[in-house]
């Protein structure tokens, strides 16, 4: 089975973890940005996390350099376009890209300008390639709930025009959901869909709270429901979809090795799993590689692949017309 030739859908991909090294260098030169090196190999080394990472926090260090060159409307639009271009070339037909607008305000950009620039990059790629996309606005868990409210308020105008959902991301601590009950409730009221990073670093209870307190429809990672029965039960009962990212999960030590990953056990037990990259450059991966890994470790069949693909279609935050078109591809 050649996964490169099969149509694919990606629901969990971070913009700032998917920036080409040569693009970082080019933008830095054009915009006079001070970066650690202008050698492509050295930049690639700094923005690619090793498989032997010790933790999520070490993994997150790889995002420092890309964000230096993501502070202008032109760079955000270009980087988004290139991400979708890379995805389209491996037959990804639909992708939801997520990013935290507050990280791109360092040089004075307004949040609305940032969101529009990313949407423009998506639209440009749709004109050029056979791919569709939408945008998820991430709020940083290490920032205040007021900052999350600001992003949600300012992103509201883009709902139905490229923005589809809100997310919480960054380092994971136990009990983070309580802090964000108000902003996420407001987001749901406005019409945002909800996906939350949770259960990535050994805290299965966070998944339970993300569903119960925040109304999460999808969970980013969710690996540690395997160790927390109440979270496992609610995910299965409510058909909450897991956005799983095998390579990233090994890097962040959510699991120690690919063959320990719970994705196939979850799948066989009826939990709705999807396969994603998380970060194409930071994890040195793409959708083809991720499916190759899952296939090699768990011997998935074409029927398994189709079911995971359909899970991704159903879980996507796009319109019914796009979902029907995507279903017809397999």
Automatic annotation (TrEMBL):
The keyword Metal-binding applies. The keyword Hydrolase applies. It is an enzyme of class 3 (hydrolase). Its cofactor is Zn(2+). This is Adenosine deaminase. Belongs to the metallo-dependent hydrolases superfamily. Adenosine and AMP deaminases family. Adenosine deaminase subfamily. GO terms for molecular function: 2'-deoxyadenosine deaminase activity; adenosine deaminase activity; zinc ion binding. Zn(2+) binds at residues 12, 14, 197, 278. PANTHER family: ADENOSINE DEAMINASE. GO terms for cellular component: cytosol. It holds the Pfam family A_deaminase. It comes from Clostridium frigidicarnis.
